[in-house]
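Q&A FORM
Asked by: J.P.
Topic: structure of Prefoldin subunit 3

PROVIDED:
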Amino acid sequence: MAKDRLSTGKTNPRGIPEAIFIKSIEDFLNPKTSTNDDVNNFLKELQMRIQQYKFMEESKSSTLKGLETKIPDVSKTLEFCKFLKEKHDKLVENGGEEKMDVHYQLNDTVYSKAEIDVKDASSVRLWLGANVMVEYPIDEAIGMLSKRLQETKKNKQATLEDLEYLRSNITTMEVNTARVYNWDVQRRRNEKSEK
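REPLIED BY: S.T.
REPLY: Here is the structure written out as tokens.
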């Protein structure tokens, strides 16, 4: 595999390559032998890398939006399962019967009302998406939701780190592009003055 000359060879934990800061443009372009085409090709290479980083940034931003929507949903479901378990456990300890009225969301704009017999609330049905609903014992549901919430928060943190890392790399590549462009302007002036 060919070495990537615009990368330091390092990556972040999720495999995004670190952009190299070009300290000396002469390491990439020889001022005496470089043609305008060589410089233009190098500038295109830099622009292509910036576009790759921006594409990754856009993808990570989209992922972040999804995670920011998912966290409150999972948290609400987990809290309700804990509440229902607490009510069920108290009812089993003390005996008796209790019914509870709840309002729940069917979709973004439609809510419905249900009556729950707390005594029979030893399991819950969770909507997993993709037209799949699964019934879990309440303790298993709480464990699964707690794990999912923890993983989602961890994924959000990793996505935020990736976004910061990508922004830093985009800035580095933009500075590199500006430096190469300015170097080329100076090179062309020197060529003109020599003629």
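FOLLOW-UP: The mean pLDDT is 91.
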